Amino acid sequence: MEKLLIRLFATHTEFAIRHTDKNLVCDFEIDNLPLEIYASTTETEKQVGYLHMVKEHQIIKSKDEKFIEKIRDLKRRGRKTEPAFCELLGISGNPYVEIFNYKII
User: Fold this and answer.
1) According to the model, what pLDDT value does residue 20 have?
2) What is the Cα–Cα distance from 43 to 89, expressed in whole angstroms?
C-alpha cells in the first residue's frame, strides 16, 4: 500500500506518510485541497474515524439546517470536523474525545 501511495501521490505538495500500530495515513494536497488517505487493519465499524462519523451524523440529524451550514462554513475555512462540531456545540477539551460524550437531546 505504501509503495502505491508514494507512486501515485509523492509529487503532490504536503505529501507525507505516517504509521501507527495498525494504521497508515497519507496526506497531500491537490489544488490547495488537503486530502488524507487512511488505511487500517481494524474493522471499519471499530475504527475511531468511523465512530466519529456516526456520532456526527446523529448530531446533524438532531439539528436544523442553520447548524449544518455553520459546520460547512467552518470546514470551508479550514476547520477540522470534530473541532468544528465542538465549537458550535460549546464542547471544551479534546474534540476527538469529547465529541463522544455529547448527549443528543
Assistant:
1) 84
2) 29
